[in-house]
């Protein structure tokens, strides 16, 4: 099947070579606002429908980029191919094997999915029949003198749990950290429960009986337990059969802050849950210019930008309207992609002037969690140790009147600040941020101990909205930014290899706060049972303990870890300075490490 897809993909590339993309720029040695506009106008057109990763329109954008690379005589990076396919999970779907049946002495009630109940998107696949236990809010917090599980046995049973907490009306309730649905499911699993049924209570009084959002969460499933939500009227009936009133029972718990859990009599629940992940494929596009120095040509400067965006919106959109609209992502990040194409073109005119090789790479999957760049650094034909620097352009199309340009990663090499000031011929008002990690693709490279620079003209009110369109782009300003990146890249590529510096985290310096810091970097592309790391922060507790990229954390102290949420909740139960044992899977083998928790 993969071979067939590859053949179709290459046929599409051949076809597009015979087509004349309207307004496609002619090759030119100069970086011009006109050429940037032509590239960007196509990439951010309605025709490409927001370039959502893995979509047909994303594929069209990838083909366009590859065609330009070919026109500039860039060599394909992946053998004879400009394309690097990578798999990712794009959502979940519910099979026909999801059902909920409540059986009492009066008969059984078969509930209808999506009408009477919904399955939580993080539920594991289960098939069980058991007794039902009401466990209040599902909170176990002995340190707060509150435990809904006190005095009840839930092992192998299904627990009925109310959403929120007994101090729902207090904005800074001491129970706030215990209220998340995932946290409650984790607690139930630790207590031995086989399943969880959530229900909305009657307080807050004006709260409607709405279902939870059933959308894919990249944090992963909670293994070993089912989780659903039921409509409140069914719980009312169950309480009535016990001679109780659900609303009054909740009110009593809230007023007394005293749990009132119990097991329903003469009642069993049969619960089946099955969710499957929707797997898709997306693409990175990369070509390179080979250096001329016989030794230095084996070192590579990487220049990158992501070309994907949000498609028709989705959960990452900030658009508040009900109608689905195309999110063209002109600034985010057709601007960076068009800049990448102009740089590739300019460098291609004088390849003999480059001592080192230069990789030009366009990523997809960035909006889903830097998936493409993460895959690239771990599956590149060029080892990361041969990459001397990564220059990233993301949202470079909105240079304002003050010419404010933000550059991240300025602390990742001792060369950067002097170099950035030296080539500031356009008199940018530069803002430097030392951090090597950040919300874009350069973070994948810094995690491999590669110096990085990330160029960004700043956020704006159109960010992640349909209004991020071509008419808002400052093409003259964009041209100045791209020329600036060219001057820097040309200097870096022909000078001594930049040194790599560890950037001390700002929050690491502030020891007055009490939040725990570990220093792990998640791998959102890792579809595993556990918390997979794409790296660890330098000089962090995780690095000092011996953790590294590729490790899968499966246990933190006494807590089982199935996903990033489990890990977050687990560290939240500890304090800075504590020593905790961590179990990881490394190359299929379990390994234990002792970590001393830091402070944020």
Structure notes:
- This protein has 600 residues and is α+β, with helices and mostly antiparallel strands.
- It has 3 domains: 39-90 and 281-493, 3-Layer(aba) Sandwich (Aminopeptidase); 96-273, Glucose Oxidase, domain 1 (3-Layer(bba) Sandwich), CATH 3.50.30.30; 506-599, PDZ domain (Pdz3 Domain), CATH 2.30.42.10.
- The chain contains 14 helices and 27 strands.
- Strands 1, 2, 13, 14, 15, 16, 17, 18 and 19 form a 9-stranded mixed beta sheet that branches.
- β14, α7 and β15 (357-363) form a beta-alpha-beta unit.
- Mean pLDDT is 90; it is low at 1-22 and 507-514.
CATH superfamily of the largest domain: Zn peptidases
CATH fold title of the largest domain: Aminopeptidase
CATH domain class name of the largest domain: Alpha Beta
Biggest beta sheet attributes: 9 strands, mixed
* Secondary structure category: alpha+beta
Domain count, please report it. Answer: 3
Helix content: 25-40%
Q: What portion of the residues fall into strands of 2 or more residues?
A: 25-35%
Mean pLDDT score, rounded? 90
Low-confidence stretches: 1-22, 507-514
Rg for CA atoms: 27 Å
Number of helices: 14
What's the shape? elongated
Overall number of strands: 27
Quaternary form = single chain
Under the CATH scheme, the architecture of the largest domain is 3-Layer(aba) Sandwich
Distance between the termini: 48 Å
The gist of it:
The chain is an alpha+beta fold and 600 residues long. 26% of the residues lie in helices and 26% in strands.
């Amino acid at each position: 099947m993969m071979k067939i897809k590859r053949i179709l993909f290459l046929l599409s590339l051949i076809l597009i070579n015979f087509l004349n993309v309207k307004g496609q720029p002619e090759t030119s040695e100069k970086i011009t606002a006109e050429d940037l506009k032509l590239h960007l106008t196509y990439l951010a057109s309605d025709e490409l429908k927001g370039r959502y990763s893995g979509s047909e329109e994303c594929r069209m954008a990838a083909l366009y980029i590859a065609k330009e690379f070919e026109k500039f005589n860039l060599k394909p990076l992946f053998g004879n191919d400009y394309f690097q396919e990578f798999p990712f999970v794009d959502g979940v779907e519910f099979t026909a094997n999801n059902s909920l049946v409540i059986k009492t002495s009066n008969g059984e009630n078969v509930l209808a999915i999506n009408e009477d109940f919904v399955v939580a998107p993080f539920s594991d696949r289960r098939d069980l029949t058991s007794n039902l236990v009401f466990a209040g809010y599902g909170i176990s917090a002995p340190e707060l003198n509150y435990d809904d599980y006190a005095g009840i046995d839930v092992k192998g049973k299904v627990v009925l749990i109310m959403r929120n907490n007994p101090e729902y009306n207090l904005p800074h309730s001491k129970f706030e950290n215990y209220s998340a649905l995932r946290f409650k499911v984790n607690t139930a699993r630790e207590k031995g429960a086989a399943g969880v049924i959530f229900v909305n209570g009657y307080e807050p009084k004006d709260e409607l009986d709405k279902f939870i959002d059933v959308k894919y969460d990249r944090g992963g499933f909670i293994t070993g337990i089912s989780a659903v939500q039921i409509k409140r009227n069914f719980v009312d009936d169950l309480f009535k059969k016990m001679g109780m009133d659900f609303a009054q029972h909740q009110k009593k718990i809230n007023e007394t802050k005293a749990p009132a859990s119990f097991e329903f009599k003469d009642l069993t629940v049969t619960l089946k849950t099955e969710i499957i992940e929707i797997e898709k494929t997306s693409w990175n596009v990369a070509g390179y210019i080979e250096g001329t120095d016989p030794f230095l040509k084996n070192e590579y400067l990487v220049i990158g930008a992501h070309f994907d965006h949000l498609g028709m919106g989705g959960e990452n959109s900030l658009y508040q309207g009900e109608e689905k609209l195309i999110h063209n992502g002109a600034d985010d990040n057709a601007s960076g992609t068009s800049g990448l194409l102009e740089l590739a073109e300019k460098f291609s005119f004088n390849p003999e002037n480059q001592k080192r090789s230069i990789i030009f790479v366009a990523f997809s999957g960035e909006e889903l969690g830097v998936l493409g760049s993460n895959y690239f650094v771990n599956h590149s034909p060029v080892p990361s140790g041969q990459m001397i620097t990564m220059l990233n352009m993301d949202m470079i199309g909105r240079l304002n009147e003050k010419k404010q340009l933000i550059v991240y990663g300025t602390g990742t090499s001792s060369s950067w600040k002097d170099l950035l000031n030296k080539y500031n011929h356009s008199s940018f008002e530069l803002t430097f941020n030392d951090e090597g990690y950040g919300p874009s693709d350069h973070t994948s490279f810094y995690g491999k101990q590669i110096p990085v620079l990330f160029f960004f003209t700043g956020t704006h009110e159109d960010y992640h909205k349909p209004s991020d369109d071509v008419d808002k782009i400052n093409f003259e300003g964009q041209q100045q930014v791209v020329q600036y990146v060219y001057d820097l890249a040309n200097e870096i590529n022909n000078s001594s290899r930049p040194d790599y510096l560890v950037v001390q985290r700002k929050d690491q310096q502030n020891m007055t706060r009490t939040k725990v810091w570990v220093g792990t970097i998640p791998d959102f592309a890792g579809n595993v049972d556990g918390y997979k790391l794409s790296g660890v922060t330098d000089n962090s507790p995780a690095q000092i303990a011996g953790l590294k990229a590729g490790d899968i954390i499966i246990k933190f102290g006494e807590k089982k870890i199935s996903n990033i949420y489990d890990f977050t909740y687990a560290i939240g139960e500890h304090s800075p300075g504590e020593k905790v044992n961590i179990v990881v899977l490394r190359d299929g083998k379990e390994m234990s490490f002792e970590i001393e928790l830091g402070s944020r």
